[in-house]
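Handout for the seminar on molecular recognition.
Each group receives one record of this type.
Step one: identify the two inputs.
Step two: read the structure output and locate the region that could contact adenosine-5'-diphosphate.
Step three: write two sentences on what you found, then compare them with the reference statements printed after the record.
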Amino acid sequence: MGMSLDTTAPQITATGIDVVIDSTPILTGVDIAINAGELLALVGPNGAGKSTLLSVLSGDVKPTRGAVEIGGRDIRSVRHLELARLRSVLTQENQVSFPFTVAEVVEMGRSPWARTASQDDDERAIADAIGATDVSHLVTRRYTSLSGGEKARVSLARVLAQSTPVVFLDEPTAALDLRHQEDVMSTAAALARAGRAVVVVVHDLSLAAAYADRVALVASGRLEAVGTPAEVFTAERVERVYGLPVDVVTQSGRPVILPIRGAFPA
Ligand code: ADP
Ligand code: MG
């Protein structure tokens, strides 16, 4: 994966994060740091606070209490354009509604680099992003005419084209088939290997475990556990947090989390 610059990502540090909305606590006492060169998977049940935490870490949501630093600076003090050159964000809702072509949507990822020296990387960054997401056969199509999974891959291509040292992806695999899920996670892992910091929200615990360097498990607005996949994904913890009995087996040194399904009635 070319991904032009070989930037080492600035560290992102969140300290004492609370988010309260209409007097309801959404996040409580979250402390976490994301380091250059790591792929961090954010997992947890529906409504746990994963997307809210991602938005706080990316500087898009101001926490009620606590602070986020990027490279030692308060993220609130970083101007919009500079922030767009430091971190990219794939949100859960894919918001392109005007009938742009796929090529136009991916090109939008380059807009923070307009009138900079990095503009020279535009073509390379766009080609790399299109290759990594397997959407080259779609470039002349209207975004609005694509299937859910195709839209998700094109939106990811736009984010990859932005070529930022820090990358936040909220459920990039949700709409994808088996192979494209693996492709997205191995692309995310490759970005981390190249020195970037990558945070991915993912529901499939085995998929998270297979690719992430560390996993952060969010439950009811709190960080339940942070560590390697093997540290975080014990059967006891997964059962307690998800309310479902599971077996945890190991494949190639990584945990695989399997729901224990009862015998089906004959
Ligand atoms: P996740 O991504 O883990 O599914 P979210 O971070 O989207 O969870 O949401 C966490 C909780 O906060 C949910 O109960 C959600 O309904 C609530 N929530 C998120 N944003 C808002 C908001 N703007 N107003 C009210 N409640 C919200
Ligand atoms: Mg979410």
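Reference statements: Residues 56 and 62 are 6 Å apart (CA to CA). Residues 50-51, 92, 170 surround magnesium ion (ligand 2) (CB under 6 Å).
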